[in-house]
Design goal:
Number of strands: 6
Number of domains: 2
Strand order of the largest sheet: 3-2-1-4-5-6
Number of helices: 10
Radius of gyration: 17 Å
Order of helices and strands: EHHHHHEHEHEHEHEH
Strand content: 5-15%
Distance between the termini: 13 Å
Helix content: 40-55%
CATH topology of the largest domain: Rossmann fold
Structural class: alpha/beta
Shape: globular
CATH architecture of the largest domain: 3-Layer(aba) Sandwich
CATH class of the largest domain: Alpha Beta
Length: about 220
């Protein structure tokens, strides 16, 4: 079994404006300083509570939990307003269809909640393409390898036949910890140099470039 596991935010879909808006709103509601757009982009991919703790290390646990609730409330409000709030990046939908048709097992490992991931896949007609979904609700978040190990277990795939594709250093670190191929994408939240420094084996500037990497990885 050849398994390809994707991150979601910043890799499959672009929900940056929602995340930034929700964090800024949560900070305002909880009367704490907003850390800035760049700081928020940097923690995308982590579980929400961990991301909040990193952005606001001096705040209490009670404030962290209040920020989490305010973030979720605002995020859900924004999603209800938007018709296409998290667009797929160019070529993603077509490539997922092709990879599944060619017999690859597909999975997702994301810092999103299960509910958020299911909604995103449903909105884009992709609910039936992934055999394993692993989220922040399922255990330790990135860069811990738990989600990727669970995906391999679900698919019956070995590390040498598994590829992790993501846009953050957390994705790359998770892949290396799970001893799988680590592929970074340049269109997400962390720049390509950071992904290279984290240990990415390959980089993609467009999803169509995955063809060459698959041929090199899954001989």
């Amino acid at each position: 079994m050849k398994l390809i596991v994707f991150d979601c935010d910043g890799t499959l879909v672009d929900g940056q404006h929602l995340i930034i808006d929700a964090m800024a709103s949560a900070c305002k509601i909880c009367a704490v300083a907003y850390p800035g757009d760049e700081a928020v982009r940097h923690i995308v991919g982590l579980s929400l509570l961990e991301a909040i703790e990193i952005c606001h290390p001096a705040e209490s646990q009670m404030t962290h939990l209040a920020l989490k609730k305010a973030f979720i409330d605002r995020f859900q409000e924004l999603r209800l307003r938007e018709e296409d709030d998290e667009p797929l990046f160019d070529g993603i939908g077509q490539m997922i269809e092709q990879l599944m048709a060619e017999g690859y097992a597909l999975g997702i490992a994301t810092g999103k909640s299960k509910r958020g991931l299911v909604n995103t896949l449903k909105n884009h007609g992709l609910s039936d393409y992934f055999m394993t979904l692993n989220t922040a609700d399922d255990g330790p978040g990135k860069p811990h390898p738990s989600m990727l190990l669970n995906a391999m277990r679900d698919a019956g795939a070995e590390p040498q036949k598994t590829m992790m594709i993501g846009d953050t250093t957390f994705d790359i670190q998770m892949a290396l910890a799970a001893k799988t191929c680590a592929v970074g994408v340049s269109w997400g939240y962390h720049d390509r140099e950071k992904l290279r420094e984290a240990g990415a084996h390959h980089m993609l500037d467009h999803i169509s470039q995955i063809r060459q990497i698959l041929d090199e990885t899954f001989l």
